[in-house]
Design brief:
alpha/beta, 296 residues, 11 helices, 5 strands, 10% strand, 44% helix, 5-stranded parallel sheet, binds zinc ion
Length: 296
């Protein structure tokens, strides 16, 4: 690896198109794509899911090698302790408490540093694309001086995010039982979308790129050009679905191998949401945008 390890981190609310964006970025020879990799300490040790490579997660040679390295690198390695520490730090109310010098933060910084260096060592790649999405995780990553972190904040309009959360969605990576994404209430959808917007705004803007999902879909040429310039990556043409080791965040993404087809956003109301709810979210979205404009 030459210089600092580059980590491309996708920020965004759930159902915002982060899987599509990660697949687009995963088109460079020097990249390893790992999905929502903060889930490693849950998914690898529970062993109930498939990796993006199609293997049962605990049998995937990539993640097994990462596990072996962590055993060697971290003294008294305890995956359950790490999983509990991550769960706590990711709570939005703890975002402002993430500061070096705190015992829990310093502990996680050490774990995270060794974890990402292991991802690079095992894969032999210089760049990692991670779609963990949480602002708190992004904040931790940007506190590690060994890493060159590029934050890409993908924001999709609130009414379409809400419509997607109202849809029943089975997670195909769970092969032994039927596991579904939760169908969220209106308040929970609104709170999570606003929390993402608010906390992402608190991150280091020197390493930050804002991308509207609608711009990506409706003006892909211009959006992709700006994105690749920021990431300092070569833009492949055509873009293809490439092999990956996504541990969570729709790991079965590449089962439909081939060219990535970016479609314009539908302008009509999705069928999965009622007219009343759609109107509610459209109004909230307009008010947030108006507030944003006035603030500037
Ligand atoms: Zn794998």
């Amino acid at each position: 690896m030459k210089g600092r390890l580059r980590i491309i981190y996708i920020l965004g609310d759930g159902r915002s198109g982060s899987t599509l964006l990660e697949c687009i970025i995963n088109n460079d020879e020097n990249i390893i794509s790992v999905g929502e990799c903060f889930c490693f300490w849950d998914r690898f040790y529970r062993d109930e899911t498939l990796c993006g490579c199609g293997e049962q997660i605990a049998h995937c040679t990539f993640w097994r090698a990462v596990h072996e390295r962590l055993l060697v690198k971290l003294k008294d390695y305890d995956p359950q302790q790490i999983k509990a520490a991550i769960k706590e730090i990711l709570r939005p109310k703890n975002f402002s408490q993430i500061q070096a010098g705190r015992l829990d933060v310093d502990f996680l910084l050490k774990v995270i540093r060794e974890f990402y260096l292991s991802l690079a060592e095992v894969s032999g790649k210089d760049v990692i694309v991670d779609s963990s999405k949480w602002p708190s995780w992004a904040k931790l990553l940007t506190m590690i001086p060994d890493f060159d972190v590029r934050l890409v904040h993908l924001e999709r309009n609130l009414p379409d995010v809400a419509a997607s959360w109202k849809k029943e969605k089975r997670l195909p990576e769970f092969t032994r039982s039927n596991v579904y994404m939760p169908i969220k209430s209106n308040i929970s959808i609104l709170r999570s979308w606003l929390s993402m917007k608010y906390h992402s705004g608190k991150l280091n803007k020197a390493q930050y790129f804002f991308l509207r999902y609608e711009d990506l879909c409706d003006q892909p040429k211009d959006s992709l050009k700006r994105l690749h310039l920021f990431l300092e990556l070569h833009q492949a043409d055509p873009l293809r679905y490439k092999p990956n080791h996504a541990i969570a965040g729709n790991p079965m993404r590449t089962y439909g191998e081939g060219t990535i087809d970016i479609q314009p956003v539908a302008k009509s109301k999705p069928k999965t949401i009622s007219s009343f709810d759609y109107f509610f979210f459209k109004t909230c979205y307009k008010l947030v945008n108006l507030f944003d404009t006035l603030k500037r």
